[in-house]
From TrEMBL, chain B:
The chain crosses the membrane at residues 31-52, 90-117, 129-154, 160-183, 216-238, 258-282. Keywords: Cell membrane, Membrane, Transmembrane, Transmembrane helix, Transport. Belongs to the binding-protein-dependent transport system permease family. This is Carbohydrate ABC transporter permease.
Length: 307, 297
């Protein structure tokens, strides 16, 4: 779950100081702060520094100016990895968002479904990406999987061996893994919409579809932004799933940015260029979350309050 | 899980002459959402059902029986194979890493959250809070190379501590955010009366804030614990010997080792997921609110 770091989440404005006696409490914040600086902030600066060096991961770190950046930016693998990342991001968003909203609305209104079946519905949230990837790899295997076992030709494709199919399969598995989570967020948000709004529109004779379009969707605006940010920024960091499922293949069809960085750094032992890719990863994430926050248009308020 | 039902009009509406018609219209079953939810439930359950029934089939049976029909003669042979593959050791590694990272992460985050709320007049604490908020935007993947370098320099490569230390750090930002939002809801008068009674900040932290924030602490612990339990990148990069593997990494390597022995792979996935599913069955509500920690308080 480290993949879902939501930059749009902001705290409420700190309430009025209770006297500003920071002296006795300051040290209480120090352990967390020092720890986070050491393993979070310093590495962030470190990755930028390492992108100007040559290092094989074991030996000495040698400053080498712009060499790593030149190598990375001239590598045709980079635009391809960016394209793959974008594709995964856009497609998984487009599949998950409408489905999560519809299911979330249903979950919020159907008590029966929620109480009995939600137990099963949320199981994907508990599983590790590794376990999910292994399960699907076995399930979709063209020789030993479900398709061949049932003898249905339509199901018996080389799901992970064909570039287009592998991408579609990946999007499907991502949706399988995360739609329950996003439905859960939407469910919570729908239940916070005041009932009186629906009552008023009923008196005006509005039907279910009309209510959905003119009440539910506008009321969910901030939740849609929160959920979309989690999806979009989260998809930048899909690593475990792709690593175990396809290892970027077939060829480089599913080689997204995070995997490209790992392979460059820990398999090809080119830590300099890998750090350059990591810097690009951070920048893309920052730009995306800033854009999504602008779309929200409520810069000073907590997105959480819309959720 | 409150039971507010949305699209139902209030009784007074249905009492009016035209009300019955309107209510019927409003109460009409949500076919689209309902249908989709049931279909998706089926989609969600199919691989889970398949992996569980397959884990009880013999390897020879697996190839000749219908993959969606459970074996008539259940075998525990696959589970034996998995247990003999040292899975118990990997399981305990995961327990050590998860507890060793979650407990300190929640404690230091709780202290920091308390300080940030109570010392909100301090510029230094405001600055620290800002750093934590920015930290939410740092993906672990992006900084894994320097983290690897730090772990090597600390001479901790290939130990469980190598996984634990960065896991704590990356649990801190969201934990501080969620916990400080909760502590902020504690009425000021309570802090004031603690102070009148001569309690120190340290005493107030443990005797007032801790009990009042307990639900949030549980939530944050579950959220982080599950993420660390399922973590893959840190063990992959920071350890190499089989002895130090955690469950997700062990699963990946076992699936390569078992090759075409699909029932054994199925048993390894089922066995390692079972404890989490049991915990889920016990504390479903806490777990679900833990999973959405901070997104729908």
């Amino acid at each position: 779950m480290t993949t879902i770091a939501p930059p749009v989440v902001r705290t409420k404005e700190p309430s009025r100081s209770t006297g500003g006696r920071s002296g006795p409490v300051l040290w209480m914040a120090l352990p967390a702060f020092v720890w986070f600086v050491f393993f979070g902030i310093i590495p962030l600066l470190g990755v930028l520094a390492l992108s100007f060096t040559t290092w094989n991961g074991i030996g000495e770190i040698v400053p080498s100016g712009l060499d790593s950046w030149k190598a990375t930016l001239s590598d045709p693998g980079l635009p391809h990895a960016l394209w793959v990342t974008f594709l995964i991001m856009a497609l998984s968003w487009a599949v998950q968002t409408p489905m999560s909203i519809l299911i979330g609305v249903f979950l919020a209104t159907s008590k029966r479904y929620r109480e009995f079946l939600a137990v099963l519905f949320f199981i994907p949230l508990l599983l590790s990406s590794a376990a999910i990837a292994i399960t699907y790899k076995a399930l979709l295997d063209p020789s030993f999987g479900l398709g061949s076992g049932l003898g249905i030709d339509l199901l018996n494709q080389d799901w992970l061996g064909n570039s287009t199919l592998a991408m579609a399969t990946l999007i499907f598995i991502v949706s399988w893994q995360f739609i329950p989570f996003h439905s859960l967020i939407y469910q919570g948000a729908v239940r916070q919409i005041p009932t009186s709004m629906y009552e008023a529109s009923q008196i005006d004779g509005a039907g279910r579809v009309r209510q959905f379009i003119s009440i539910t969707l506008p009321q969910l605006k901030y939740t849609i932004i929160t959920s979309s940010t989690l999806m979009v920024v989260g998809s930048l960091t899909f690593f475990d799933l792709i690593y175990v499922l396809t290892a970027g293949g077939p060829g480089d069809a599913t080689r997204a940015l995070a995997l490209a960085m790992y392979q460059q750094g820990f398999q090809a032992n080119l830590m300099g260029p890998a750090s350059a890719i990591a810097v690009i990863l951070v920048l893309v994430g920052l730009v995306l979350s800033l854009v999504l926050r602008r779309l929200g248009g409520r810069a000073d308020d907590s997105q959480l309050e819309g959720a | 899980m409150a039971t507010v039902t949305k699209h139902r009009p209030s009784p007074s509406v249905s009492g009016t002459p035209g009300g019955t018609r309107r209510r019927n219209k409003a109460m009409a079953y949500n076919w689209l959402g309902g249908g989709l939810s049931w279909v998706w439930l089926f989609v969600v359950m199919l691989p889970i059902y398949w992996i569980v029934i397959t884990s009880f089939k013999t390897q020879s049976n697996y190839f000749i029986t219908n993959p969606l029909v459970p074996a008539s003669d259940l075998t525990f042979e696959n589970y034996k194979t998995v247990i003999e593959s040292d899975i118990v050791r990997y399981f305990f590694n995961s327990v050590i890493v998860t507890l060793g990272a979650t407990v300190p992460a929640v404690l230091v985050s709780f202290m920091a959250a308390y300080a940030i709320v109570r010392g909100s007049g301090s510029r230094i604490l405001k600055g620290m809070n800002w750093v934590f908020l920015m930290g939410l935007a740092i993906p672990l993947q992006a900084v894994i190379i320097p983290v690897y370098l730090i772990i090597i320099r600390l001479k901790m490569y290939d130990t469980l501590a190598a996984i634990i230390l960065p896991s704590i750090a990356f649990a801190i930002p969201l934990s501080v955010l969620v916990l400080s939002n909760f502590i902020r809801d504690v009425p000021k008068e309570l802090f004031e009366s603690m102070r009148m009674d001569g309690a120190t900040e340290w005493g107030t932290l443990w005797r007032l804030a801790f009990p009042l924030t307990r639900p949030a602490l549980v939530t944050v612990a579950i959220y982080n614990g599950l993420g660390i339990w399922n973590g893959f990148l840190l063990p992959l990069v920071l350890t190499q010997s089989p002895d130090q593997r955690t469950v997700p990494l062990a699963l990946a390597s076992l699936s390569g080792q078992f090759g075409v022995n699909v029932p054994a792979i199925a048993a390894s996935v089922t066995l390692t997921t079972l404890p989490i599913v049991i915990l889920y069955a016990i504390g479903r509500r806490q777990l679900l609110s833990g999973l959405t920690a901070g997104f729908s308080k």
